[in-house]
TrEMBL record:
Organism (species): Phoenix dactylifera (Date palm)
Similarity comment: family membership: Belongs to the NIPA (TC 2.A.7) family.
GO CC annotation, single: plasma membrane
Transmembrane residue ranges: 6-32, 44-63, 115-136, 142-162, 183-205, 211-233, 245-265, 285-303
UniProt protein name: Probable magnesium transporter
Keywords from the named record: Cell membrane, Endosome, Ion transport, Magnesium, Membrane, Transmembrane, Transmembrane helix, Transport
InterPro entries in the record: EmrE-like, Mg_trans_NIPA
Mode of membrane association: Multi-pass membrane protein
KW Magnesium (keyword) present: yes
Main localization of the protein described in the UniProt heading: membrane
Amino acid sequence: MSYALLVLVGCFVVLVFFLGFGVLGLGFGYLAWISTMVMSSDNIRGLVLALSSSVFIGSSFIFKKQGLKKAGVTGVRAGSGGHSYLHEPLWWFGMITMIGGEVANFSAYAFAPAILVTPLGALSIIVSAVLAHFVLDEKLHIFGILGCILCVVGSTTIVLHAPKEKDIESVKEVWSLATEPGFIAYSCVIIFLVIFLIIQLAPHYGNTHLVVYIGICSLMGSLTVMSVKALAIAIKLTFKGTNRFIYAQTWLFAAVVVICCLLQLNYLNKALDTFNTAVVSPVYYVMFTTFTIFASMIMFKVIC
């Protein structure tokens, strides 16, 4: 064994050693914080919903991947631009499972604080990685395991140190924030990057570089989240008796959500059909979360 390899192995062992203590410390700190909370019935409901959401979302990647593989046998693969998976029941089951998980996650925030719910969302990465290892026979190596751990640690750290979010009470308020110069500039940069990735990079490097497909999904995802927030407010106020769907801004936000979701769905299917599920899930989670944080910082003027 060469000296360079020995040094590399030694550095890796040290990294794992300190990371292990970091994970244990963060985990015990999080559990200690939870233990100080009054676990009311609402908090318990939120906890159950958050855990259910992670299981549903994590397993949905597996069902969709199996559906994509079956569809690729009889038709054009999604990675090659085909849409035969739309005729595959297993893929639709995966989609329904993912939607159910997102609904459960959305509902969890109505019962429990974000500091309890959000870190549990990272468990979907572990669920998809473990199921991919055993169900899809996509082997998860040591660096994949390390990456999953880092995802969970990173997301938990961010939530535990996140500043208080500004309270938004109307669709017009979201529209006012979305039309400020800073967020307009951000949106223009995002749209330019997505068009560049789709036209220039995806045809040549999409099947060999995961970040191309996942980059498209994540960039558009940051705009989707901001629009979903406006829609959620509109729906909430409408149920309370004040119809917010009479405003053009609400329908514009709805159009952004539909367009972005369709684009994300198309390229996420390409990524799942081409690359290892245990790699797609954590990379997508990290990139999506990163760009969403950037979008939130710009739109709501929050400095972490």
